[in-house]
Amino acid sequence: MRPTGKLHLGNYMGALANWVKLQDQDAQYDCYFFIADLHALTTDYADTSGIAPNTLEVALDFLAAGLDPERSTIFVQSQVKQHYELPLLLGMITPLGWLERVPSYKEMQDNLATKDLTTYGFLGYPVLMASDILLYQPQFVPVGQDQQAHVELTREIARRFNQFYKFDGREVLPEPKVLLTPSPKLPGTDGRKMSKSYGNTIQMTDAEAVVRQKLKTMVTDPARVRRTDKGDPDKCPVGDLHKVFSTAETLAKVYDGCRSAGIGCIECKGWAADALVQILQPIQERRASYSTAMVKEILKDGSRRARTRAEQTMHEVHSAMQLTLTDEVGR
Ligand code: ADP
Q: Tens digits of per-residue pLDDT, 261-305?
């Protein structure tokens, strides 16, 4: 997750909530979660002032969602120097064409036309991403469908590395598999995908009054202009929120009431707000239990643990690439 602002409900449902489930499943997974501050530089290099404060906010959002630093390694990318090291080495073997073909490369250049993204760093960000993953030699990467292409490229880079180099006759960078997590596309208040870049978000830190106010201004089924018009929750962004957050009982009331014009949009939005407030309440309570000093300590400890694990991989990478004279030299 990039530290470009506080996290919103889309980030929560699309990513964080799944991560918490993985962490909670009988300690089956040894999970690493990090704040990708180096990735924030790919677009925000000209003004870096927001990156450190946002890193703390995102860490708080992680903890508020229920990530547990005792069970998962939570760290900051820039504090683990191996994230600078492996991209250089993988960059040597990654063909330019692979990077130019990444769908988000063109897309983001078009979407962020006010920023000059014709940089080496921006073109190379999938190599950084591949390194972020491969440094931990993981079996799985838990991502939604929208991120599958990045993991596929990571697998290709790993495969190419393993073809060129081996350590003690074995592969150093196992190809990680996608662990597909459900990522329902949550709409924002304007009906488009909820996104920081659109200014249409409901943040995980929004107070009840703010949530209710934002819901009031949310767009609805365009066919339902007057209170007496019948509507369709399947064509309404508020209906989409109900599908994700409301109970089956409320959802049934929404379908009945909307399709028969038995309820108005204001009432329906009130129910959606109730559901959101209920989801957010425990999250916000947990957030309030952490001080800034505690968060910094958690990130420091997580980054130390991540460094230890990543160093092990880098030792194998260096040996496989024959960059060490002997095991003892240098590092
Ligand atoms: P943003 O568009 O707000 O900048 P990011 O692109 O940083 O969000 O997304 C971080 C993670 O959150 C990704 O895993 C992405 O799939 C998920 N995510 C973001 N917005 C949504 C949304 N509206 N619905 C579902 N998941 C989302």
A: 999 999 999 999 999 999 999 999 999 999 999 999 999 999 999
Residues 103 and 132 in one domain: yes
Domain identity same for 142 and 40: yes
- Residue 47 resides in a domain: yes
Q: Is residue 237 lining ligand 1, measured as CB closer than 6 Å?
A: no
Q: Is residue 195 part of a domain?
A: no
Assess whether 273 and 306 both reside in one domain.
Answer: no
Q: How far is the CA of 9 from the centre of ligand 1 (A)?
A: 9
**Cα separations (Å) of 19 from 31, 105, 137?**
8, 26, 18
Q: Indicate which residue's Cα is closest to atom 1 of ligand 1.
A: 195
Q: Domain span at residue 253?
A: 206-287
Kindly give the number of the ligand 1 atom that is closest to the alpha carbon of 195: 3
1 lines ligand 1 (CB under 6 A): yes
- Please, which contacts does 167-170 make with residues 24 or more away whose CB atoms are closer than 8 Å? 167/316, 167/317, 167/319, 167/320
Asked whether residue 1 is domain-assigned, the answer is: no
Give the confidence band of 328 by pLDDT, cuts at 50, 70, 90.
Answer: low
CA 6 to mean position of chain CA atoms:
12
